[in-house]
Amino acid sequence: MVVLRHISVAFSAAMAAVGTALFIALNIFYKRRVWSPESDYYTFREEEEERSEKQVLVLGLDGAGKSSVLQGLSGAGSRKGCRPTRGFNFISLHTPACQLDFLEIGGGEDLRMYWVDYLRRTHILVYVVDSSDRGRLPQAKDELHRLLKADTDLPVVVLGNKQDKPDAVSVPELREALSLSSVADQRKLFLLASQSGSDGLSRTCSLQKFQDLLLTLV
């Protein structure tokens, strides 16, 4: 059983690594794919004014609602019964200032140990927490602080998700449970409320407000 578990962990990590490599390759491919008006086919050349691209890494325990947040950002709305991500998800959000590439890595136990490997290419970390899962808040705190120690300069936005649930902790309670006050003065760190509604974002944290905050941090 131990051998099978190690094989499963290695396989999951390999799939996540392959997925990230594919994500980067596709970005490069489409960035260089430019329409040539002199021909009826696509040519490959660098654009004269290349759009600035910033990567936003989206992490959190399995079931926190990371995929729902991405669906809200993409305009697709959140799906009910969305299964936890086993590998990765990504979307690109185009703004006048830059292109925000959101990369979500699954939050299962077999993938969390590899989270820090993705911080090197990241401009912003978005950490999603299930506010209604009180029993896992200590675990969410431990994983968050492990990431904070791995990169002391990376801007961080913590989303207290599922605030619409009746048993969700309040934002002040969440700040205390995650021990954010102990690190808030040492880096750019923000705590916002979100919910598992149709757009994945609550009135407290509107889509535009969330985007504007990210753009100020990149």
TrEMBL record:
Query: Is Translocase one of the keywords UniProt gives this record?
Result: no
Entry binding sites for Mg(2+): 67, 85
Residues bound to GTP are 60-67, 107, 161-164
What GO annotations for molecular function exist for this entry? GTP binding; GTPase activity; metal ion binding
Q: Which UniProt keywords apply?
A: GTP-binding, Magnesium, Membrane, Metal-binding, Nucleotide-binding, Transmembrane, Transmembrane helix
Please give the start and end residues of each transmembrane region.
6-30
**SMART domains named in the record:** ARF, SAR
Q: Does the keyword Transferase apply?
A: no
Matching Gene3D superfamilies: P-loop containing nucleotide triphosphate hydrolases
Q: Record's PANTHER family?
A: ADP RIBOSYLATION FACTOR LIKE GTPASE 10, ADP-RIBOSYLATION FACTOR-LIKE PROTEIN 9-RELATED
What this protein is called in its record is: ADP ribosylation factor like GTPase 10
